[in-house]
What does this fold into?
Amino acid sequence: MVWVIKAKHESEDGKTTALELESEDGWLDANVRWDGCMEIHLYSVTEEGREWSDTFRTCDLQGLIEQLQSLDALCQSFFESQDNWGEDKGRTDDGAADLIDR
It folds into this structure.
């Protein structure tokens, strides 16, 4: 994935304090601060443009990545026999989800 720097914010002494980044495909953008905290915005990208979908806030990007990888591994183990697992067909449940015991 290629990231485009949309804006770079600097302190009076010239140090970078924040970056505004956007993925080349327009699916994500991120506002990243010097301390590692960030907001990650997800978009639905269509032929007409892009529409904001959700926001994640974290000060532990690596921890978030590890949690998402763990979620992906669990889901793959449940749905590995389905040929279309992992294809992005868009959500049709308006965010509803069934919970299972851990």
